[in-house]
Design goal:
The chain is mainly beta. The chain folds into 5 domains: 53 residues; 231 residues; 105 residues, no CATH class; 140 residues, Jelly Rolls (Sandwich), CATH 2.60.120.200; 43 residues, no CATH class.
């Protein structure tokens, strides 16, 4: 077998070209509980969990329930429901690796939508939302700032957005027709969007909202009458989210003055029945600026940075009326704050970034995709309900794949973005945080000690892939034909990509017999001479070849041995972020890919060709030769290269 082809069908190609976003949503409001009626007539108390991707209810003893709309009862599930949708990825320019500048005066369209059975709770919603979204220093009832106030504060005036409010328009169906749950997600929110757009098209010039000149309006917002599901748990209500019409229908919505595609929506009312604050609105709108969700989009109760970030549940602070400020990372991404690289020394009177204060960055010198951002947070203005004050540190472990797929914090063992309060003695790679104090005026003092320019000593591993999570058949188990290499590809690291890829037994399979393919390895960061080593084999063919392309420089192809994993290595220079591509002919198997930083650059550009390595012989403790592949041996202690090695 050849594994799974990544491109499922033509629609995916269309979506990748035209949509280029991942599904985004607000997380369930913490603390929403209710008694669920089960099929047998009993009830159970559970907490609302998930988001627009997959919504469900979780009991204190971790039992999982989902609503069954046909019977109006809840059914117990064996596992968290998985989204049925394929993932749509953002392009590299929109996924957090580089600054995505958003500045100047901009206009965004906001459409007010009511349903056949649900009107707005106020008599003049258009006037209300012109104030709620655009008011200057807006204060009224629970409101203590408008959406425009919020973005002006985050950008320090660099981004001045005006929300053009139109409607309300009444739709032809009741809210449940658009919002009822179907396989863990809302049934037809896109019908709400397209029907509303058609009703307002005659009064809207969509070109006014096209920021980049591609003919498509940016980030259209919808506010729908009544409640949402995220904070009430009402299964027939629409869950606030950001998404794309291209995903739903395969094309943009076209009008004489332009096109519509990406949109976001938020409810009129909160769970108390009051007009909702701007928190959810600003969270969803921020997705349109390129920011991903920072809660775990695949697991309940794991909010990642939680109240530290508006892209998690920080949007719910102050009951949704006072979402927290953007972090320095988020401000840097959209181009509103520059980061100053931190050096050893004392830092005095550091103000918050909202008061023109600096934010600092310290990089992992062997992998600049990993870094800490340090900033001062003060409980004032939009941060009045922030969980801490003083030095806040954001630890970034950037991976283009997780950012693109909106799964930044889905691995609890390796968050992409983690936030916490800085503590004395904390290690930041080569540095140590030695002192912090908050001054009476709210500014911050802190000290850093350590080495500013570390020199690598010995070999440092900058990338390692064992494929041990690949639980299929084929390769290391000695099987090469039949139903092999067809299991779902499950590597240690995200970022691998080939049109055909699958899992063998603790190895990865790539490509298709007698065809040419490219295999992209996850990016890594290193400065100096590197050595790559891996095992590879051709599958059922003597004609399989592999050549390596590193940052555009190509090496010569190597012929892989049929049905036998053999070791190869090569050296190359790396200067920062490095991309490796394998050019493949035929189906190949890979295992144990490792890249180590060996020393300073040789100042010779290009690739040193990959060459075979002879596996070392393995002996048991009695000195008897037992083979060359430890994976095929029983657990125990063996001698390899004159040293004792434990095989687990």
């Amino acid at each position: 077998m050849i594994g799974t082809k990544n491109v499922k069908n033509t629609i995916i190609v269309i979506v990748l070209l035209l949509c280029s976003i991942a599904m985004n949503a607000s997380p369930a409001w913490p603390g929403v509980t209710k008694s669920l009626l089960l099929k047998d007539g009993t009830t159970v108390k559970a907490h609302l969990s998930g988001d627009e991707h997959a919504k469900y209810w979780l009991t204190d003893d971790k039992r999982i329930f989902a609503y069954e709309p046909v019977n109006g009862v809840y059914t117990e599930l064996s596992e968290v429901p998985q989204p049925k949708d394929f993932i749509i990825t953002r392009p590299a320019s929109r996924i957090g690796g580089t600054v995505q500048k958003v500045s100047g005066k901009r206009k965004s369209l906001v459409v007010l939508v009511s349903f056949a059975d649900q009107d707005f709770s106020v008599s003049d919603p258009k006037t209300l939302y012109q104030h709620v979204l655009n008011g200057k220093d807006y204060k009224n009832g629970n409101f203590n700032g408008s959406a425009r106030d919020y973005f002006l504060a985050q950008s320090q005036g660099k981004f001045d957005v005006t929300f053009d409010v139109v409607g309300p328009v009444k739709l032809s169906k009741g809210y449940a027709k658009y919002g009822y749950n179907n396989n863990g997600r809302d049934a037809a929110p896109e019908e709400m969007v397209t029907e509303a757009l058609k009703k307002v098209a005659s009064q809207v010039n969509f070109r006014d909202y096209d920021w980049d000149g591609d003919g498509v309006a940016e980030n259209i917002m919808f506010v729908y009458a009544g409640h949402g599901e995220a904070d009430t748990g009402e299964a027939d209500r629409i869950w606030p989210h950001q998404w794309s019409l291209v995903y739903y229908q395969g094309y943009t919505q076209r009008f004489p003055t332009g096109e519509a595609n990406t949109y976001a929506c938020a409810p009129e009312l909160n769970s108390n029945g009051d007009v909702a604050g701007v928190g959810i609105f600003c969270h969803e709108y921020s997705h349109g600026l390129g920011l991903p969700d920072l809660y775990n989009t695949a697991s309940s109760g794991d909010y990642g940075p939680a109240y530290y970030s508006i892209m998690s549940i920080g949007s719910y602070l102050g009951n949704g009326y006072k979402p927290c400020n953007y972090s320095a990372y988020e401000k840097n991404f959209v181009g509103w704050v520059k980061l100053e690289e931190l050096k050893s020394g004392e830092y005095k009177n550091v103000a918050t970034t909202n008061k023109n204060g600096k934010a600092f960055v310290v990089y992992n010198q062997t992998n600049r995709n990993q870094y800490y951002i340090l900033e001062n947070r003060e409980r004032e203005s939009w941060d009045i309900y922030y969980p801490v004050q003083g030095l806040v540190m954001t630890n970034i472990d950037y991976n283009s794949n997780t950012w693109a797929n909106n799964t930044v914090n889905n691995d609890p063992q390796r968050y992409g973005v983690a936030m916490h309060q800085g503590q004395k003695g904390e290690k930041l790679y080569n540095y140590t945080l030695s002192n912090t104090s908050i001054n009476a005026n709210g500014t911050l003092d802190f000290s850093i000690t350590g080495t500013d320019t570390p020199t690598p000593s010995g070999e440092t591993t900058v990338f390692s892939e064992s494929f041990d999570n690949c639980n299929g058949t084929g390769g290391n188990d000695g099987q090469w034909s039949g139903d092999t290499f067809s299991a779902t590809f499950n590597p240690d690291n995200s970022g691998w990509y080939c049109d055909y890829q699958g899992s063998g037994y603790q190895c990865g399979s790539f490509g298709y017999p007698d065809k040419d393919y490219t295999l992209n390895l996850p990016q890594f960061n290193a400065n100096g001479q590197c050595k790559i080593s891996f095992k590879a084999a051709g599958v059922e063919s003597d004609n399989a070849t592999l050549s390596m392309v590193i940052n555009g420089a190509a090496g010569n192809p190597i012929h892989l041995k049929k049905n036998t994993l053999k070791g190869y290595n090569g050296t190359f220079d790396s200067n920062g972020t490095t991309t490796i591509t394998f050019r493949l002919h035929g189906q190949i198997v890979l295992d144990d890919v490792k890249i180590v930083l060996t020393g300073k650059p040789t100042k010779i550009d290009g690739v040193v060709n990959v060459t075979p390595t002879e596996p070392q012989k393995v002996y048991d403790l009695q000195g008897r030769y037992v083979g060359k592949d430890t994976k095929s041996l029983p657990k125990g202690i063996y001698i390899i290269g004159g040293k004792k090695v434990v095989v687990r």
